[in-house]
Amino acid sequence: MKKRNVWMAMLMMPLMALATEVSSPNGNVKLKFYLDEDGRPTYELTYKERTVVLPSHLGLELAKDKHASMGMEETDLMEGFRIVDEQATEQDETWQPVWGESRDIRNHYTEYAATLSRQWRSAPPKAKPGMQLQPRQHDRRIVVRFRVYDEGIGLRYEFPQQPDLNYFLIQEERTEFAMAGDHTAWWLPGDYDTQEQETQQTKLSEIRSRMKEAVNWGNSSVAVFSETGVQTSLQMKTDDGLYINIHEAACMDYATMHLELVDAQTTALTTKLMGSSNAYTPAPKPSPYPLPRPFTFVSHLTPDATGLKGCMQTPCQTPWRTVMVSDDARDMLSSNLILNLNEPCALDDVSWIHPTKYCGVWWEMIVGKSSWHYTDDFPSIYLDNIDWQKVKPNGRHAANNEKVKRYIDFAAKNGLDEVLVEGWNIGWEDWACMWKADVFDFVTPYPDFDIKYLNDYAHSRGVKLMMHHETSSSVTNYERHLEKAYQLMNDYGYDAVKSGYVGDIIPRGDYHYSQSMNNHYLYVLQEAAKHHIMVNAHEATRPTGLCRTWPNLVGNESARGTEYEAFYGSKPSHTVTLPFTRFQGGPMDYTPGVLETRLENWSENKHIVHTTVVGQLALYVVMCSPLQMAADLPQNYEKFDDAFQFIRDVALDWDDSRYIDAEPGEYITVARKAKGTDNWFIGGKCNEKGHKVDVKLDFLDKGRKYEAIIYADAKDANYETNPAAYTITKKTVKQGDVLKMTEAPGGGFAISIKPL
Amino acid sequence: MKKRNVWMAMLMMPLMALATEVSSPNGNVKLKFYLDEDGRPTYELTYKERTVVLPSHLGLELAKDKHASMGMEETDLMEGFRIVDEQATEQDETWQPVWGESRDIRNHYTEYAATLSRQWRSAPPKAKPGMQLQPRQHDRRIVVRFRVYDEGIGLRYEFPQQPDLNYFLIQEERTEFAMAGDHTAWWLPGDYDTQEQETQQTKLSEIRSRMKEAVNWGNSSVAVFSETGVQTSLQMKTDDGLYINIHEAACMDYATMHLELVDAQTTALTTKLMGSSNAYTPAPKPSPYPLPRPFTFVSHLTPDATGLKGCMQTPCQTPWRTVMVSDDARDMLSSNLILNLNEPCALDDVSWIHPTKYCGVWWEMIVGKSSWHYTDDFPSIYLDNIDWQKVKPNGRHAANNEKVKRYIDFAAKNGLDEVLVEGWNIGWEDWACMWKADVFDFVTPYPDFDIKYLNDYAHSRGVKLMMHHETSSSVTNYERHLEKAYQLMNDYGYDAVKSGYVGDIIPRGDYHYSQSMNNHYLYVLQEAAKHHIMVNAHEATRPTGLCRTWPNLVGNESARGTEYEAFYGSKPSHTVTLPFTRFQGGPMDYTPGVLETRLENWSENKHIVHTTVVGQLALYVVMCSPLQMAADLPQNYEKFDDAFQFIRDVALDWDDSRYIDAEPGEYITVARKAKGTDNWFIGGKCNEKGHKVDVKLDFLDKGRKYEAIIYADAKDANYETNPAAYTITKKTVKQGDVLKMTEAPGGGFAISIKPL
Q: How far B465 CA lies from chain A's nearest CA (Å)?
């Protein structure tokens, strides 16, 4: 790492009203930091001299607690500060991720850290028998640290260990992001438990009026907290063409952050929007510092069961709060700001982590044709009280020996690495939404799933089975069984697990995005690493780039995946929105590859998948992930075997990625070079309006000939009326050639290029 | 087991207004059960024709929950019932506990079970898109089961598996106990987290006015919920000399029950009495069925973090609610009603469970002379970030090699089985009341505690070390480390653990007595059994006789133990109250044996222990427990070596127990025959008023001569002014002899008798 002091100030006197300005390495992004007249930390942000963030306050409200106070009154960390130290340095390093969009990642930024001191004299002691509290001078210090990149900033609070701050409880973090105008935003309703909603595209001023519809859309909201609460990553676009994205990085031992647009109307939705949930929903408070900034977001952390937002021990820090900005939408996709703000890899040995292409016994249950559970005979079950050999099978249980063998054969034949099998283990009869604690044991197969035989068979064919751990969000139960569950995986040769957190968290009152649950997901990941197990956690927390530090986190869901096509549908714009939002935090197991997009062609399900066939192929490139499913059924792939060739071929790990064009919710075109090869894969995807793009092959080696296989929508293709109309053409290409691609409504294209 | 049908009725028609009467085997206790005019289950109880329980309703309020309703409206299980089946049988069996007060326990009762049906028609379906709810006839059945003993009853609710009742949430259990008069009661303030308060003795009508003082006493209340809420076991005495005790048995997968005296003034105390706790405190509701019964207790369950009381899956049942009654106070102590209502032993092999007499590195920390923690250098610590070899010791750390060796030598010399060592493991620097999650790892010793050497040394001297697991109530953390912690015990030869649950529960919002925490304690116990480990859990839930089913639960605290003598003091009446209340649920690790009752004689602590020296000896017999500590320091026992002989001699497990006289809060005299021997030990203990008792040795073998060693208070002995005045005399005794014993204020006596 190159480290250079670019600026240094050590002032023992308060710096009130004096602003420090910090520039990114190329000068495009400029940060201003100062204390206002009340000693409130305040920052502003510009990009090429255009305002990105208006003056915005930083601070935390602390909770008063019988424990934390320890004989000393609590004070918020909001105002009354003075600056006692400032440090600035430029950092420039390049690192190599275990997997990802490129072989090398440059981490180049200007760092600025201000040490703030808040001094106060404790109140005169009240006469309490046996207590002799003397008034005392207190001094609490926090550090506000900024990293200023050419495409945005990260900022966080740091809390050094000190006599006056060892433990504290967070009532709310009050980090403001005051937007300079009524931007267009791509947002999800703020929710403590899920982000599986459809994205809303509105002006900031329309969030409130859209919220009710947004919450009802597809029926996915669980724990909405405000009529103006939204999730991150929040992608915005200004009227004059700036792209702004707010998210967070490295969320560890801290609650997930939401954003609340604070205005005069801000009130609690509480249970009205939350349905009949018994969970405690605290009313959000308006910003204690209203200012004439009508589009100001304030951080809103996910609470614990008691309504508190965090429980801290110094030395510690918050996650990074990130603001990405550019006048080129492609920079929103190519930026590594979130990964760069995460800690380096924590694992010494990563040889066991590998890109994984898989199929699985899954889609047919999602569509409703078969079942996870084995028997219909019991209205509810206790795991230990049933002789599974004697119960009557329902005849629809998918995870049976015969079917799993067919999937293994299919994977072996088509070069897929693994076969996921859901519903292999006892407990699915009454697993969901019953507040049932002891719902699964994660080690006992149903009688028609011969775990030893099937793993042996898979291995004999060069394939692995992928484990499935649905926790039903009964977290206490999962942790009790975790070690034995991982041991079973080691015993039979599984090296990856898809886990699930469907339903409300047990312990009751907790939320999917709370500090304690974020700790749980990390605990599970760390324990998995000890067993050399890769994790793909569904319905878990919102990713913030922790996969840099723990690269065995090869996937997450944490968004509306392909499964919703079988439930309510997703708009064609969905897949060209997610890379701007959800994928900022890390790869998603979106489960693409449904080539039979009309489900009624093989099931009772009347829904369609809202892309063309080729659009499905494009997703493998547009949605970067080291873990990709071929989600459809083997018999459906047989129908589209020529198109399936792209799924067989496509790589999952890359030396380089070039974004060709992009616009949130509209289209994304990207070319990626497969790791350790000279092969390129290009994907283009668009929304319901279709798209045309000229793909200039300027990234190919000069003087070299390549064969391109081009999977394109046919002229009359349309995701609704004619999804399966596509052409596959081969041609020889070279550097500088231009491929003129036309994407159908809801369509796209996919190209594989190999040197001849 | 002898099983006889004594009565049988199968009536398919409602039995409204017809009462069924069930008599105990000897006819003293009579139960009446019927449905009132609203179909509410109602019971009454008499003892020798005197009213014990006035007409009292049974029922449960269910919570409405988005999950449990599953498309069907919820209905409470309170009223509108009809009786569809009745069964009555007499049962008589004798069983042998693994340890306890007697070799054989007779379980003799009349059982009556009424199956109640509640039918309703679901509301007409509302027009919801996509949902076609038809009105439907529903039928929910519950069983109310009574066991009628000669000294009281148990009753419980059972919920068979059925189409209309698979999962449900309990808003509140509404079991009433309507007392027939303004009885004297020995009570503790109802509290979701602790029962370490001093017992209050008042009339029922005085509970409300005494509550504030009761809560403030000794500063032990944590989560008080009502001005008339009290804990069980609740001992009462009527003006005409009936003794009544309300408690519960076999509390598993259910919240601990409190009692609330419901009157017109019933309101919530909420945070006023609870201090600044952040915990959610639901307001208690008055009984939905007020009746002119001024002394009616209603059950009040401990809530979870969301305020709900229970989460149930059929088939299941509540714990037994018990009412013990007699006109002889001794029956309150000799009754095995609670144990009899628990399930038989669940362990096949109990050979590894043994009575244990122990000393330990503990009392000197309680008194304040030495410390659990190793260093004073850090205001807070992260376990993994400290090089313990390099930190500066504080010089007061008690659990060091040298001291532990002295305790081992002391135990070996005096025939004690084990040596408890608290403060042996890292983390004590900031362990309590910080909401700190990762507080202990339970496996890493401080640098001055050589775990291998000390265990080897102890074993070479025929002694075992006793493990200590303070969890700091960070339950998630404890469960994560449990298996490795138990494995460490197996590796080094520990076979018993004292565990602790000081402070508020993590996950935050949960309580020590909740359903989930009761599940935790049982989980820990079951995992311990797999490792052949005996458990003595402090600050855990209120015991309800589970030690019958899990006899490796050799002790609990769950009351105000000897430690409070070093904090605030306990009244002399305390130790003659606990056997009537706390000990109903199982043995207590009271940690008696503090012979140097004036702490200032060896420390800075100015408190005294509120008994005479001989009073301490008596506790080993009066407080029956298979686990008994000799709590004082070796150097103090050297000062009282002649009295200490009784502690060396006394047995911990018994073939027989004979209560000679007893009165709650006044005095208890009991003779016990040591298991497998002809030795008897007699203990007498009294309150501050002193006591005289004639001990007639009618239980000795006829024609046999015995040597009795009598430890008695000297004439001028007094717990405050002259605690160490005692006499030790030997005499030969035989069957029928009478020993006239005089107990000093706060004193007692102890006698060991062996055949010559």
A: 27
CB A320 within 8 A of CB A527: no
B308 and A278 within 8 Å at the Cβ level: the answer is: yes
Active site residues of B: 563
B128 — contact with chain A (CB < 8 Å)?
Answer: no
Residue identified by tokens 């605990």 is A523
Measured in angstroms, the CA of A606 and the nearest CA of chain B are apart by 14
CB under 8 Å to A560, separation ≥6 — which residues? A195, A196, A197, A198, A218, A220, A570, A574
Residues 6 or more apart whose CB falls under 8 angstroms from that of A308 comprise A63, A169, A170, A171, B278, B508
* A670/A685 Cα distance (integer angstroms): 9
For B63, the closest of A278, A480, A483 (CB atoms) is A278
Q: Could you write out the DSSP letters of every residue in A643-700?
A: HHHHHHH--SSEEEEEEEEEETTTEEEEEEEETTSS-EEEEEEE-TT-EEEEEE-TTS
Q: pLDDT for A131-187, tens place per residue?
A: 555 677 889 999 999 999 999 999 999 999 998 899 999 999 999 999 999 999 999
What confidence tier does A283 reach under pLDDT thresholds 50, 70, 90?
A: very low
Confidence at residue B66, expressed as pLDDT on a 0 to 100 scale: 63
**pLDDT tens digits for B706-745?**
999 999 999 999 999 999 999 999 999 999 999 999 999 9
> CA dist B669 to A596, B338, B574, B663, Å?
84, 21, 15, 9
For residue A594, pLDDT over 80 is answered with yes
Distance CA B258, CA A597 (A): 59
A471-509 burial, b at 16+ Cβ within 10 Å, e below that, comes to bbbbbbbbbbbbeebbebbeebebbbbbbbbebbbbbbb
pLDDT at B282 over 80: no
Residue in the block written with tokens 């200007």: A110
Q: Kindly state the DSSP code that residue A329 receives in the 8-state scheme.
A: H
Residue A135: exposed, middle, or buried by beta-carbon count in 10 A (0-12, 13-18, 19+)?
Answer: exposed
Instruction: Give residue-wise pLDDT tens across range A633-673.
Output: 999 999 999 999 999 999 999 999 999 999 999 999 999 99
Name chain B contacts of A166, Cβ cutoff 8 Å: 379-380, 430, 434
Q: What is residue B32's three-state secondary structure? A: strand
SS3 B463: coil
What value does the mean pLDDT take over residues A723-743? 98
Which pairs count as long-range contacts for B389-397, CB under 8 Å and 24+ apart, including other chains? B389/B447, B393/B448, B396/B369, B396/B370, B396/B371, B397/B370, B397/B371, B397/B372, B397/B373, B397/B423, B397/B446, B397/B448
pLDDT class for A13, splitting at 50, 70, 90?
very low
Give the per-residue SS3 of B324-389.
Answer: EEECCHHHHHHCCHHHHCCCCCCCCCCCCCCCEEEEEECHHHHHCCCECCCCCCCCCCCHHHCCCC
Eight-state DSSP code of residue A524: H
Q: In this model, does residue A272 exceed pLDDT 80? A: no
Tokens in use for A117?
Answer: 């001191």
Cα dihedral B393, B395, B398, B401, rounded to 10, equals 70
Give the bridge partners for B681, in sequence order. B672, B752
3-state secondary structure of B47: strand
Whole-prediction pTM value? 0.94
pLDDT score at B286: 47
Give the tens place of pLDDT for each residue, B198-247.
Answer: 999 999 999 999 999 999 766 678 899 999 999 999 999 999 999 999 99
Judging contacts by C-beta atoms under 8 Å, the chain B residues touching residue A276 are: 64-66, 69
Three-state SS at A305: coil
**Which burial class, exposed, middle or buried, applies to B518 when counting CB atoms under 10 A from its CB (0-12, 13-18, 19+)?**
buried
A382 touches chain B (CB under 8 A): yes
